[in-house]
Design a protein that fits this description.
Mean pLDDT: 79
Largest sheet: none
Shape: flat
Radius of gyration: 26 Å
Number of helices: 3
Number of strands: 0
Strand content: under 5%
Low-confidence stretches: none
Order of helices and strands: HHH
Length: 98
């Protein structure tokens, strides 16, 4: 007979297995997409040859979109680390008082 502790362990294991299977299923789904990068590149090059500035704006937009996730994750990481350090300092201060 299973004890309460092993039942909870099994529930937790089933939860992780379910999440892993769903994650695997989602990651294998293929969504057809239209790759337009060569088209954008070609139109930007032609625009620059004709004296336009759309190519420069397109390149800046690509760099902006490329950098944004790193900035967001870096900012969140900075605040998370700072808060963890404050919590650690507060725990140490409380431990010293007692």
């Amino acid at each position: 007979m299973l004890s309460l502790g092993s039942k909870l362990g099994m529930k937790k294991a089933y939860k992780y297995i379910t999440i892993a299977v769903l994650g695997l299923m989602i990651s294998t789904i293929s969504i057809p997409g239209n790759a337009q990068c060569p088209m954008c590149k070609l139109s930007a090059e032609q625009n620059l040859k004709m004296g336009g500035t759309a190519g420069k704006g397109l390149n800046r937009g690509i760099l902006f979109m490329f950098a944004m996730p790193y900035l967001i994750v870096g900012t969140l990481g900075f605040y998370w680390i700072r808060n963890k350090r404050k919590e650690g300092e507060e725990k140490e201060a409380n431990a010293e008082e007692y």
